Protein: Sterol desaturase family protein
Amino acid sequence: MAKPKTTIDEHGQVRDRRGEWRSGRKVSLEPLFDRPWEIKALLRWMFGFPGMLYPWFAIYMAVIGVSYAYFTPEFAVMQSWDWRWVAEITIRNIVIITLWNGAFHLWFIKYQMQGRKKKYNGSWMSKNNPTFLFSDQVWDNVFWSYSGVLFWSAYECGMWWAYANDMLPFISFQSNPVWFVLAMLLVPFWRNFHFYWIHRLIHWKPLYDYVHYLHHKNVNVGPWSGMAMHPIEHLLYFSCILIHVVVPSHPLHMMFNAFQTGLGPAVSHSGFDEIVFGDEMALQTDRYMHYLHHRFHNVNFGESNMPLDKWFGSLHDGTPEADAHFRQVHIERVKTQQAKAEGQ
Structure:
């Protein structure tokens, strides 16, 4: 008997024969780059919930504020290299990512607090699978994530040392309040611009085969999958922090850049469309765009607040039409490769 094309799961969600669920809505790009501007849409995006400022921007700012005020050494201490303050920052980052990624993991995966409700892939994390370190997807992802924290911390410590020694262009809120606020708002756009181009680079076949393949072993992603990367990819990924070498900024801008880069992947790789609290409340993670990248590999290299995928023809919006289009693109690519191989 042929396997049915769709099934209804325990939450009443329609899943295809692979067990995949889709929200039914198209991938949405933020309206900032739409022309002409729609003022209502812009205001809803900036001040609505969820939106640009709430909740994730506000959550990151709270984490950064506490970390800056209570768990970062004084400038005077960081003027000279000492393993103690470097260790303090590194341990701080390890604790933060453990609490952050761990909270998402416990909710979604360990205790399955919402079951498979709003879960894109119908399967759970892989066990007894030699593809992954320790034959376990979660522990593989945890190992590589902690490797990534070392790169995050190395970049951050280098920047702290440079700030402490007046080697970087520095501003404060008092000296330039307009640029201070604007720069903070622009950090996510810079980070996603940088991510798009780094991501395209590591999809170049030599780098993909030896570096980025490690991340893409995670087709069915979980919160720890986001930072599960090869060390070379970590080196490239966190290089977005180096923008503060040339752009006037405050250490808080650098921290926002670093923390969003380190913590954001847990959200974008949760594997769920929403965090569901009971029957009435839900918080949209809105990371369907990046889930489709793990599903199809050669689409959606960026994120939704920078429409680079739209501009360069790699945007998969989640519709059946996009499925058909990129399936044909893949067929044509394979044919071209075969033709080249036969001609050699």
Observations:
- The first strand starts at residue 6 and ends at 8.
